Amino acid sequence: MTVSADFHIAGRPIGADHSPYIIAELSGNHNGDLDRALALVDAAASTGADAVKLQTYTADTITIDADAPEFRISGGLWDGRSLYELYQEASTPWDWHAALFKRAEEHGLHCFSSPFDHTAVDFLEGLNAPAYKIASFELVDTPLIRKAAGTGKPLIMSTGIANYAEIEEALKAARAGGAECVALLHCISAYPAKPEEMRLQTIEALAAAFGVTVGLSDHTLGSAVTVASIARGATIIEKHLTLARSDGGPDADFSLEPQEFKQLVDDARMAHAAMGAPRYDRAGVGGSNAQFRRSLYVVDDVAAGAELTPENVRSIRPGHGLAPKHYDTVLGRTAGRDLKRGEALTWDMLG
């Protein structure tokens, strides 16, 4: 089962022929402060990103307040914390959303979100969200996928902890819900993720298996993995943004600061520009510098009728004469006219 690889958000085409679409994920890096959240939108605009993304949930819509061991995190960045208290801290208040959408619009940025339940989709529709993102851990929630797909908006889905069968089920749910514009993001759901765990060849494998636009949700530090993913065909990049890691917060440790994020944007766009289609004609390979390749030149005066020898013909730069492969052929031939030192050798100069 495949979904069309043609993908766009709010009229912006996304694909191999276009500069990568870069999303600044704000997540919980607002640290509970609306002014900081607005400053993050400003910072995202300054980096050259295409979009900012929120997460729309409350602790009560994503989990329950329970003391059982399975509701508590063991190991990693959030070791010992309960899901409920973590999501209370990290959630973006719903009454902030309108202000954040408006600030993004003022900057010419797209703003959309990851809904975590059906009420969040309805709420975001009221804000005219231009797209929806299904988070890795929600990819198995096919009713939620159908709900988001039913809006008719483009749908981006992270594949972090899903196998191929689950990805196919998610895509079927998206199609059943009415989605025509679907993309997948390869993702390693570790925070932070290690570069050696990223398996970037999965990007090409996903595109081949499912026929959709594919990108990367990158939780590694720095921008090297993002740049490498462009060479593997990633056309959408999602990365967490913070004002300063030293300010703390639930996602700070695997987020980029604004100048780092700007470097990522610049590097990703440069990597895409460097890809290009293969060309093996002279202009494609060497451009104007092809003139400085070696060719055959007269290097000593030769009288008309005199023999061409290694002493008066050599392969040198620049490249305006006969190709060096003709060297053995012209040796022993005679000059058809007086030849001057420094002349590019051509066939009509031979007797």
UniProtKB/TrEMBL annotation:
CDD domains reported in the protein's UniProt record: SAF_NeuB_like
Gene Ontology terms, MF aspect: N-acylneuraminate-9-phosphate synthase activity
Highest taxon of the lineage: Bacteria
Classification via InterPro entries: AFP_Neu5c_C_sf (IPR036732), Aldolase_TIM (IPR013785), PseI-like (IPR051690), PseI/NeuA/B-like_N (IPR013132), Pseudaminic_synth_PseI (IPR020030), SAF (IPR013974), SAF_AFP_Neu5Ac (IPR006190), SAF_PseI/NeuA/NeuB (IPR057736)
Domain AFP-like: 295-351
GO process annotations (BP): carbohydrate biosynthetic process
Gene3D superfamilies per record: Aldolase class I, Antifreeze-like/N-acetylneuraminic acid synthase C-terminal domain
NCBIfam families: PseI
Protein name: Pseudaminic acid synthase
